Hints:
The chain is globular. By secondary structure, it is mainly α. It has 14 helices and two strands. The chain has two domains: 31-158, Orthogonal Bundle (Peroxidase, domain 1), CATH 1.10.520; 166-303, Peroxidase, domain 2. It has a two-stranded antiparallel ribbon. The protein binds protoporphyrin IX containing FE and 2-acetamido-2-deoxy-beta-D-glucopyranose (7 copies).
Amino acid sequence: MAGTSSLGIVVVVVLALIGSTQAQLQMYFYGMSCPKAEHIVKDYVKQHIPNAPSLAAALLRMHFHDCFVRGCDASLLLNSTTGQAEKNATPNLSLRGFDFIDRVKSLLEAECPGVVSCADIIALAARDSVVTIGGPFWNVPTGRRDGVISNITEALANIPSALSNFTTLLSQFNNLGLNTTDMVLLSGGHTIGISHCPAVSPRLYNSTGPGGIDPTMDSEYAENLKANKCKTASDNTTILEMDPGSRKTFDLSYYSLLLKRRGLFQSDAALTTDSTSLAFINQLLSSPTQFFFDEFGKAMEKMGRINVKTGSEGEIRKQCALVNS
Ligand code: HEM
Ligand SMILES: *[C@@H]1O[C@H](CO)[C@@H](O)[C@H](O)[C@H]1NC(C)=O
Ligand SMILES: *[C@@H]1O[C@H](CO)[C@@H](O)[C@H](O)[C@H]1NC(C)=O
Ligand SMILES: *[C@@H]1O[C@H](CO)[C@@H](O)[C@H](O)[C@H]1NC(C)=O
Ligand SMILES: *[C@@H]1O[C@H](CO)[C@@H](O)[C@H](O)[C@H]1NC(C)=O
Ligand SMILES: *[C@@H]1O[C@H](CO)[C@@H](O)[C@H](O)[C@H]1NC(C)=O
Ligand SMILES: *[C@@H]1O[C@H](CO)[C@@H](O)[C@H](O)[C@H]1NC(C)=O
Ligand SMILES: *[C@@H]1O[C@H](CO)[C@@H](O)[C@H](O)[C@H]1NC(C)=O
């Protein structure tokens, strides 16, 4: 019997060793290779986000866009070389986020050259920024490696559109292993940040209700947006909030607005058109904010694992905008 159980132990140990050589994300991946890495990101965020809190939204959105195209591999940060890069498909606002990531990367390169991936920096900076503005914390296991391809066509195909309906959105999320509750939770990111008229104008000027207004949108809200924000159908510069009055606070008000038919984008409003999704919105609203925070965090951790490159895949870029030569 003693022989059998020690054989059992050997088998378990061997299996564990095999498991550990199969690279995957892990907490504090840089614990040995660059022990200060996560502190450097956090300190930089804590130092700068309070002066520029709107960057938190840009960084959260950057992480989402990165993960939805080729996995969370910082392909979003690459500059165009031959074809057009993903970057060119994102609105200019995110550019503020690009500079921010580059500055964090410089600090990390000074501390431990060639060790910390740009993909992990995005994931950590997004989490730390959201925490800094009073939003939820979530675990960010690290060990992502950087991709070498960035393609605008893929970005346009994979990044959900503000004009999409529930079915289209859910299939995009499902393709990446995310389900209905993940989609409702992650869309809750719209509790912070800003947008531009093109994402909503078709609902205000070119839909099927009176005055071209989308009949699923609260008409008072729509009239107000047309009178004060998106004054023409082609305005592409005016900034508007997805969660008016509360865009700096990570809270449940985005979901309350959805039930008042005041979701800004069709993609927000769409979350009330499916029974599972609607039931979950009601559950969020009838629970303490902490429930939203906890569940949002789990969904973010799940999003942060989408098609990640680990082990010897990809590379650790020296500069986030360029593939290593
Ligand atoms: C469900 C599909 C989604 C659609 C269709 C969508 C669409 C959009 C659009 C059109 C904007 C405004 C861009 C602009 O006009 O400047 C925006 C902003 C934003 N989105 Fe989403 N989004 C989605 C999901 C998400 C997810 C999953 C997150 C993160 C977890 C997120 C976080 C944000 C944030 C924080 C902003 C504000 C960015 C800023 O202030 O710079 N969105 N989104
Ligand atoms: C990437 O492109 C931006 C904008 O075109 C430019 O400012 C930046 O210097 C480029 N980065 C590198 C490393 O070439
Ligand atoms: C970008 O991706 C599209 C769709 O997968 C493909 O047709 C195109 O050739 C790619 N472009 C480059 C420059 O690789
Ligand atoms: C985006 O940035 C480019 C280059 O900085 C500028 O030429 C263009 O006008 C900007 N577009 C908008 C909509 O702000
Ligand atoms: C959702 O949008 C897609 C693409 O535009 C369309 O084919 C589909 O019929 C729409 N589904 C519903 C339920 O409206
Ligand atoms: C979505 O997946 C999470 C686990 O990642 C699970 O807890 C949740 O119940 C799932 N939601 C649905 C609607 O299946
Ligand atoms: C308005 O919608 C129609 C069809 O729904 C489309 O053909 C037209 O191009 C749209 N106009 C604008 C300004 O978006
Ligand atoms: C924004 O609108 C102006 C004038 O309506 C137009 O000239 C410009 O090309 C538009 N910019 C973008 C990025 O669509």
